[in-house]
Amino acid sequence: MKTRKLVCLVALVLGAAAGPLPAETPTEVAQAEYDEVMTLEPNLENGRQVYLTCAVCHRPEGWGTYDGGYPQIAGQLRTVIIKQLADIRARNRDNPLMYPFSVPRFLGGPQQIADVAAYVAQLPMTPRNGVGPGNDLELGKQLYADNCVKCHGKNGEGDSKDHMPAIAGQHFNYLMRQFDLIRTNRRKNADSKMVKQIEGFTLREETAVLDYTSRLRPPPEKLAQEGWTNPDFPRYVRDSMVQGPPPPAIAPMPEPPPMPAMPEPPPMPARPQRPRMPQSPVPPAMPTPMQ
């Protein structure tokens, strides 16, 4: 018993001398890295170099994919980018696709997070993100006002201080997927108040509110000009899934080939004259009867 107490005392003394004990839970690990990153001065040029890792999925412009397979991260709040990267690295948010690219061996340490977050935050956003079907927008507008404005802002601008993500201009299909992950408690770093708030949403309500959200427009100064490409990646091959395919042009129907001229039909042969029937002889007059 005395030995056990001595070990505990030594550990306590060493801990006090060495500083605070290291973080243990994924939440604590992520928070510690977030706090460290926020003390650093970002370097945009280095952020451009670090972003080479991110461009593979999020594309050079940071617009993700039109179908929502990858989110638009261009123009996202810097604090949100830092928090999500820290959470993914610490396994405080499950993201199997992104995790291998976020680990220090690929992405770097806290300074690299500070740099790439600043680079991404200043990228202009796509003017044509993926939107929903547009069938229930009045319901979506009311649901957004009742449930989303307090945290994400009237225009979906987010909150940098509380690292609430900006959701205006985000792809509809990505919003749908994250909404389902949050509601079913599969996104570990989700706000607990949001989980409770949306747990009773029907599919119609979910589709309506996220359709409305996907149509919220970021400020004009945050949007790229139509046709803009990131000059930092001049040799990158783009595809239509980034900005969304333009409506397909309907090709005009080809003119049918002219019908060949029909030959004139041969003249009908003249009908032969039918032989005239012989006239019957006039019968002889009947004799007048005797008076």
Shape call: elongated
**CATH level-two architecture of the domain at 25-227:** Orthogonal Bundle
Going by helix content, strand content and strand pairing, the class is mainly alpha
The biggest beta sheet, please? Answer: none
Total DSSP E strands:
0
| Low-confidence segments | 1-18, 245-250
Report the helical percentage: 40-55%
CATH topology (level 3) name of the domain at 25-227:
Cytochrome Bc1 Complex, Chain D, domain 2
In CATH, what is the class of the domain at 25-227? Answer: Mainly Alpha
Helical region count? Answer: 13
Pattern of helices and strands: HHHHHHHHHHHHH
Rg, alpha carbons? 39 Å
Question: How much β-strand is present in the residues?
Answer: under 5%
Q: What does the average pLDDT come to?
A: 85
Spatial separation of the terminal alpha carbons: 180 Å
CATH homology superfamily name of the domain at 25-227? Cytochrome c-like domain
Please describe what this structure looks like.
With 291 residues, the protein is mainly alpha-helical. The protein has a domain at 25-227: Orthogonal Bundle (Cytochrome Bc1 Complex, Chain D, domain 2), CATH 1.10.760.10. 43% of the residues lie in helices and 0% in strands. It has helices at 2-18, 26-37, 44-58, 78-89, 99-102, 104-107, 110-121, 137-147, 149-152, 172-183, 192-198, 203-214, 240-243. Helix 10 (172-183) packs across helix 12 (203-214). It is elongated, with a radius of gyration of 39 Å. It starts with a helix and ends in a 48-residue tail after the last helix. Residues 1-18 and 245-250 have low confidence and may be disordered.
